[in-house]
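Thought: the user wants the 3D structure for the chain below. I'll pass the sequence to the structure tool as-is, report back what it returns, then summarize two notable features.
Action: structure_tool
Action Input:
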Amino acid sequence: MESQDEQVMRRAREGQLQAMAARLQQQQLQQRGMGGNQMGQQMGQQMGRTQPRTMGLSMATAYDDIPITGPNDLDLFIGQPPSQPDFASFQAACRRGQLSAVESIVTSEPRTPAFLHQGLVLALGAGNVGAARYLLEAGAPITRQTVKHVLSAPEDQKIPLFELLTQHGWTTNTPGFYGAVLLPQILTNDALLDWFLAHGANPNLGVQRDNRDRYGEPNADSCLALETAASHGSVEAVQKLLNAGAQMDNGAPLYFAAGANPHAGLEMDVGRIPIMAELMEHGADVNQKFQSRHMNPQYPIVNAVMAGAVERVKWLLSQGADPDLRGSFGSATTYAQKNGSDEMKRILPPGEGFGEQGLVRAVAPQGMNN
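Observation:
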């Protein structure tokens, strides 16, 4: 008679086996030309191996594009596979960079791509170039989620790891899920930014706005990198992206610079002004309306007011910003009078016809003024 714990374990294992069978069936169908995503196939071929779209342990998991080729592969994703007792030692060796131990375990019996990949991401995250190189040469796949683990490595090992990955087919424009690329995530690291741009990173690529295809390409008209640099990076990072061909018309970087680091103090307030000036010199419109399906301040000056950035508001006014343009939360003037500091109120005094009812209508979300 099975105990309750044994029944739970058996049912969990049966569920894993069913999921694995489904993945294997879909892989077989794709290999026969009955499905698959062209972009995923092209990326797999570029990396020297085919990585068909798979179902994963459930829909939309981090393991969706790891090839499942063995009956025990799914056990690897729960961390302590009872079917592979040396897996914990393998993980530790990859994490510590113990190359001889890694080699010994890998060569002790045939290893699947999923087994090797689990070690690869640990080696990448720990900055162990030697172990990562060995695993890649042994057949570890580079999937859409593999490369981001390099961002956890020690600083002095990140570029050597990226160099290694380029030797195995990865590029700075290779997408992750939903077309996400790494460039927007490394903009505050000057050395990495220089390396990415020197290796062909396209500053106009970005994650799909509508998440339309998990295995699809990036948007080619994205402003994510430039907007991220404008709000969190340095003026030098913004300059480098613009020099690399970043297109401001793809988005609203001035808007994001104006509202960055809300209520973070004078230093942060003033610190964005050189970036805003750089953007203006390259043609940014001080009164550009930020288009989004979400409610937002919509205009740079309103965003700056809502961030409590007094010095940015003064600078924007000096550049011709219109304080009476109304976004979803009202105009800069009406928001300042309702919620701003005393200094903000002095900078943006109420205009003609600014009464109590007018203020309520101005700060209410659009469509709710009736």
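Final Answer: Structure generated. The two ends are 69 Å apart (CA to CA). Strands lie at 326-327, 330-331.
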